[in-house]
Automatic annotation (TrEMBL), chain A:
Full protein name: Phenylacetate-CoA oxygenase subunit PaaA
Gene coding for it: paaA
Organism: Streptomyces minutiscleroticus
Record-level GO cellular component terms: cytosol
Lineage, top ranks: Bacteria, Bacillati, Actinomycetota, Actinomycetes, Kitasatosporales
Domain of life of the organism encoding this protein: Bacteria
GO molecular function: phenylacetyl-CoA 1,2-epoxidase activity
UniProtKB/TrEMBL annotation, chain B:
InterPro entries per the UniProt record, alphabetical: Aromatic_CoA_ox/epox, Ferritin-like, Ferritin-like_SF, PaaA_PaaC, PaaC
Domain of life: Bacteria
Transmembrane segments: none
Pfam family, one: PaaA_PaaC
UniProt name for this protein: Phenylacetic acid degradation protein
CC terms in the record's Gene Ontology section: cytosol
Length: 354, 279
């Protein structure tokens, strides 16, 4: 809170000095900490990104969470429970990082529930089979790691520290997802078909949606989207929030996945994928952002479903949170717990009423 | 969790009793009895873990999503060890997955308490309160067994369950003393699950033979202590322990509630859709 309030009261000359100091700080590679002055635009951009990331962790629990009760072996069940648990933990780290910027977790959740803040649109796809849990872990989490690894060095200290913990666990999830897919690929023809089908459905969402809109010319045909994306990325890079363009990271992801898919014997659903000796990268079909306008919209079946599921959990749990708050207030007030006999209980009730 | 040595209790029992035919018969019966008992405990953990999985993404707070998944993970871990041991002892060589995913509903021997549908958060807390205090006492008792596999499991699991018990105790207090609505719901939760608690402590021939042989203690003598401990928590929460007029039984012999069929169907669905699959 403090830094934002300082800005409002600071005279223009002082603000110029503060800005120069801030930019020097970022340029030096030192982290910006909650007490440091920061431009409002920086705060807004960070808050938006961290909140979206936190929401994505929480919403991302749903497609995999739906398979917890159906995991086909107890080993896989344990692995999946641990993964979904990690995602809840990541959500908590990230909401805490957002709170250092003056946001309140309850408000952020409300914004998610009211559809005012977004989450990764990748999760607006359904997880239709068991293999989807593997494809999500291998591809979606794989994309997340590539996206997030540079964020361990992002300019805002609390975010960078949260991301270091997140990335360690995410890398583990990717290996587990690959291992799940490997087991399916080495299994029966039906298991193999299930694995290929899941990759057919999760590849493009990972390539397109996990990295955001094209932000260089290489990114695709939509020049206006790319130009806007490029402007946003330039700003984020200048502030040290990001270090790479969306398209650079997307290329890194494709380069990583193609050999992995070959080892698994799975086909990535893009006929344009081939090694380009000259570039030293795999070519692939540029992301047609228009295709994803629908998936990105707030009003698709799955977007509604994901938010409705969250909202239902939140609303059903309201009485529990109220009880916990009332109990905590009571503890703070030093009301002793109820006695073990009737007299104790009666005394306790009286105090509670008073 | 499946860190059991190759020298399974039955094998040792068989070796110990190999001198005479009668001793051999006793030893093999002890092994079979132990397989039955461990399957019951494993099914308790598996089925309760499955119920808790149904909470994940639906909990009242993100912290609770985390806590309930943590507990579910421990329970699945306990189930894996117990089912693995049971499969080694019963002579069929079944693995943890064979037992979890290929048995019929009627072959599951969990106590009915563990399969009760989640209900609201208070009903889940009440079920956790009853189970965790029981499991905590019984696993501590297992930790004293002569058999190193059982004793090792009991000691490890008792430590984990102590955290689950703390979680249940804390929520019982919060809900019991929180708001009028939470008090009402917590009371209803206790009323809902209490008729299913006696079965946890039941003795039958299997339990009695194992206790008489000094292999595994019976849970029956633990009941008074369980009642005292649970009673203390419930009283501190400003509530009273229900005195149900009936007690449900049947889980230990495979007679389950109607809600159990869908639970097993869901548990086994993917495994059964891919015959011969490897995971």
């Amino acid at each position: 809170m403090s830094a934002g309030q300082t800005t409002a009261g600071a005279p223009p000359a002082a603000e110029d000095e503060l800005l120069a100091h801030f930019e020097a700080l970022v340029a030096s590679g030192e982290t910006v900490e909650p007490r440091d002055w920061m431009p409002d635009g920086y705060r807004r951009m960070l808050l938006r990104q961290i909140a979206q990331h936190a929401h994505s962790e929480i919403i991302g629990m749903q497609p995999e969470g739906a398979w917890l009760t159906r995991a086909p072996s107890l080993h896989r069940k344990s692995v999946l429970i641990a993964k979904v648990q990690d995602e809840a933990g990541h959500g908590l780290y990230l909401y805490s990082a957002a709170e250092t910027l003056g946001a309140d977790r309850a408000d952020l959740l409300d914004a998610l529930h009211r559809g005012q803040q977004r989450f990764a649109a990748t999760f607006n796809h359904p997880a239709l089979t068991w293999a989807d849990t593997g494809a999500i872990a291998w591809l979606t989490d794989g994309a997340a790691v590539i996206n997030q690894a540079p964020l361990c060095r992002t300019s805002y200290g609390p975010y960078a520290r949260a991301m270091r913990r997140v990335c360690q666990e995410e890398a583990f999830h990717v290996r587990q997802g690959y291992d799940l897919m490997r087991a399916l690929c080495e299994g029966t023809p039906e298991q193999r078909r299930m694995a290929q089908d899941a990759v057919d459905r999760w590849w493009l969402p990972a390539v397109a949606l996990m990295f955001g809109p094209p932000d260089t010319e290489a990114g695709g045909a939509d020049a206006r989207t790319a130009a806007l994306g490029a402007a946003v990325s330039r700003r984020a890079i200048a502030w040290g929030i990001k270090h790479h363009t969306n398209d650079e990271l997307r290329q890194r992801f494709v380069d990583q996945c193609v050999p992995q898919a070959e080892r698994l014997g799975l086909t990535l659903p893009d006929p344009a994928i081939r090694w380009n000796e000259e570039r030293g990268h795999y070519d692939f079909t540029p992301v047609d952002w228009e295709t994803y306008r629908d998936a990105l919209g707030d009003d698709t079946h799955w977007a509604r479903q994901r938010v409705a599921h969250r909202r239902a959990a939140h609303e059903d749990g309201a009485w529990v949170r109220e009880a916990a708050a009332a109990y905590a207030a009571r503890e703070d007030a030093g009301v002793p717990p109820a006695g073990t006999g009737a007299a104790g209980i009666a005394a306790d009730r009286t105090e509670a009423a008073a | 969790m499946t860190t059991t040595s190759d020298t399974a209790p039955a094998a040792r029992a068989v070796r110990a009793g190999a001198r005479t035919g009668a001793a051999r018969a006793d030893a093999s019966r002890t092994g079979a009895d132990l397989a039955v008992l461990l399957l019951r405990l494993g099914d308790d953990a598996l089925v309760l873990g499955q119920r808790l999985c149904q909470w994940i993404t639906r909990a009242p707070t993100i912290e609770e999503d985390l806590a309930l998944s943590n507990i579910a993970l421990d329970l699945v871990g306990h189930a894996r060890t117990l089912l693995t041991l049971s499969g080694r002892l019963d002579g069929t060589g079944r693995t943890e997955d064979d037992l979890a995913f290929t048995r019929q509903d009627r072959e599951f021997t969990n106590a009915l308490l563990t399969e009760l549908p989640n209900g609201d958060f208070a009903a889940t807390v009440a079920r956790q309160l009853a189970y965790t205090h029981y499991a905590s006492l019984y696993y501590e008792a297992l930790a004293g067994c002569a058999d190193p596999d059982l004793a090792g499991f009991g000691a490890r699991a008792a430590k984990e369950v102590a955290f689950h018990r703390r979680h249940a105790d804390d929520w019982t207090l919060r809900l019991g003393l929180g708001t009028p609505e939470s008090t009402r719901r917590m009371r209803a939760g206790l009323e809902r699950v209490w008729p299913y608690t006696a079965e946890l402590f039941d003795e039958d021939d299997v339990v009695r033979r194992l206790a008489a042989a000094g292999t595994v203690p019976s849970p029956a003598p633990l009941r008074p202590l369980w009642e005292r401990r649970v009673g203390e928590v419930v009283a501190r929460a400003g509530l009273t322990v229900p005195a149900p007029r009936w007690q449900a039984r049947g889980g230990r012999v495979g007679l389950h509630t109607e809600e159990f069929g869908p639970l097993v169907a869901e548990l086994q669905s993917v495994h059964r859709q891919f015959p011969g699959g490897t995971w």
